[in-house]
Design a protein that fits this description.
two-stranded antiparallel sheet; about 20% strand; single chain; globular; five-stranded antiparallel beta sheet; alpha+beta
Length: about 140
């Protein structure tokens, strides 16, 4: 958790974090809208040292680099108190459908796609929300 005097870092926004941010178009930052963090800028191998994250502005359509998928600095992001598992079902369905139609640059997005699949399993009751609980059930 950040205190008021700490500046956010890319590590404060892990994959699948829902945020509000303003995408950039033609050198201008647009009004804020919902987005989801796809991962650290540069790929998972940069997770510990990335200074930016890749965000997908899913309300702008399927993921396409430059239009709906952009690199964002942490100070441009406001985290939302929601998750892929708890968000409104219609919005989650839009994310799932959009994922099937679009692409991420450099084949990024593996961890994000895995997070969406896990959220789908949790939402449908095919998986426990807490991995520790799953292990507890199988020990007895």
């Amino acid at each position: 958790m950040l205190t008021t005097d700490q500046k956010p870092t890319a590590q404060d926004f892990p994959t699948a974090t829902l945020v509000l941010a303003g995408p950039w178009r033609d050198g201008y930052q647009l009004d804020t809208r919902p987005a989801v963090v796809v991962g650290p800028f540069g790929g998972p191998e940069f997770a510990g040292r990335a200074t930016m994250v890749v965000a997908w502005f899913f309300t702008l359509g399927a993921p396409e680099p430059g239009d709906s998928v952009q690199g964002m600095f942490p100070h441009e992001l406001t985290p939302l108190d929601d998750s892929l598992t708890t968000m409104h079902q219609d919005v989650f369905r839009d994310i799932v459908c959009g994922l099937r139609k679009g692409r991420f640059a450099y084949d990024d997005g593996h961890a994000f796609r895995a997070a969406v699949r896990q959220a789908w399993r949790e939402r449908t009751g095919l998986a426990d929300a807490d991995p520790a609980a799953r292990h507890t059930l199988h020990r007895s």
